[in-house]
Amino acid sequence: MTDIPLKLFNSLTRKLETFRPVRNGEARVYSCGPTVYNYPHIGNMRAYVFADVLGRTLSFKGYKLTHVINITDVGHLTDDADAGEDKLEKAAAENAQSIWDIARHYTEAYWADIKALNIREPAKWSIATDYVPQMIDFAKGIAAQHCYELDSGLYFDVTTVADYGRLARAVTDEGEGRIQPVDGKRNAADFAIWRKTPPGESRQMEWDSPWGRGAPGWHLECSVMSGNLLGFPFDIHTGGIDHREIHHPNEIAQNQAHCHSDASGANIWMHNNFLVERSGKMSKSSGDFLRLQLLIDRGYHPLAYRMMCLQAHYRSELEFSWEGLGAALVRLKRLVMGIETLNARHAELVSASIAPREAEPRGEEWTLKQVQADDFHPEVRRFLNAYDDWISEDLNTGVPLTIVEQILALKKVDPSEKLTAVAAMDSVLGLNFMWLTRTDLRIRPKAATITEPAIEAILTQRKEARASKDFATSDRLREELAAQGVEVMDGDPLGWDWKLVV
Ligand code: AMP
Ligand code: ZN
């Protein structure tokens, strides 16, 4: 197995580039985190599945990974440019709750989704409000040369840095037309570094600064936390594609000012495309939206959603549908069943003392070096090489999923060896293959009222009716189950005799 270089699509150059770490053997990655004024929707979680696959790939390729994800608990306005209210202040006012309680509640909800999707914890969750003194210092450092003060706050003059907006490639008059004007701004694209609390008003979150009492701008947070925790320049900065237009160009402008350099602060800027709903852009500011818990409530295992994400390339738009999610769940079930069968076969061989490979299949995280050092059947080795090729080509996960399926289907290969290969591949895919069971995947929809023993009892009666060729009774029992949301699946190749479809 050769060492295939890792190629990543850099939004700055709009090209695939070979990953070359700033520090030998290390990979330092910053991902823009959620704004915790509401539950994350599954589109938001696509951004973290993508960042997780990136991190896992870097670890697999042998880099020592330092990943930081921030939590935005202050500063993000209802518009990504400077218009509107602070999202958290607004949520707190609407719910008559403390902003700190709101932030804590939704941060915990986000962490629960992270866990459910088997996303690895970053080295550091950086909470924006923990870094306000550093933000003020950063702003002080760039204020004289790059900023100007208005009654509403301290603003960054985007003409003071080279090539502002090169990441967005869209700072045309038309692009700027989307930005709502703030009285006195020198250029439409100028943005707030510090937002002063208007006279006579107070905010739940506000701090003293040389520009008066107020709160930091959202873009400032990410420059400060990434620079403080990773150091400029670091390797990779990630976020959703929306951030390519305003948030990241503004971070880059600040980084340039802070570092007295034309460089952007990160070598590679990567953006995942959106998960969309046919009805329009997914949004968590509209009341009823798709959150992970809704999928679970309807009986879908959260890893079925991870599977759905992995089936698409991260740079492609992905349309959500319940049918698509159902298909992803079935695919996951098939894989898990294949693995269970192999485990059983392996156990048989071991108990008969004829296991060709002594060792238990290894379920822990693998690196490419370990895969290279392990002794694999030539056909498995060929698949593992192909797997590395695909994953190294801008994190292609779609083909590797089919490689997992092909390895499981190989004839004449020892089960434990197949399992070991699958475990190695799952180090990047993160679908938890080695631990997930069929039982885990059967989730009871929240609205279901019929119990499992009741279903089994009716199915037993139905089996008896069929055995005595009483098809009228068999049909009636099937209808009875259907009325209670149970779909009977006669002859299902996966052996799932029924499913709840409420
Ligand atoms: P937010 O909490 O709105 O700041 O967003 C958190 C992350 O989700 C950011 O990286 C966004 O770019 C990303 N994001 C927002 N909407 C979507 C979507 N529909 N699909 C994929 N990523 C999204
Ligand atoms: Zn950010």
- The oligomerization state is single chain
Read across the widest sheet, the strand sequence of neighbours is 5-4-3-10-11
Query: What helical percentage do the residues reach?
Result: 40-55%
- Which residues form runs of ≥5 with pLDDT under 50? 172-177
Radius of gyration: 26 Å
Q: So how many helices?
A: 17
Q: How far is it from the N-terminal to the C-terminal residue, by CA?
A: 48 Å
Task: Using the alpha-carbon principal axes, give the shape.
Answer: globular
Q: Which range does the strand content fall in? A: 5-15%
How many beta-strand elements?
16
Structural class: alpha/beta
**Largest sheet composition:** 5 strands, parallel
Q: What molecules are bound to this protein?
A: adenosine monophosphate, zinc ion
Task: Quote the average pLDDT.
Answer: 90
Notable traits:
502 residues, single chain, binds zinc ion, alpha/beta, binds adenosine monophosphate, 43% helix, five-stranded parallel β-sheet, four-stranded antiparallel β-sheet, 16 strands
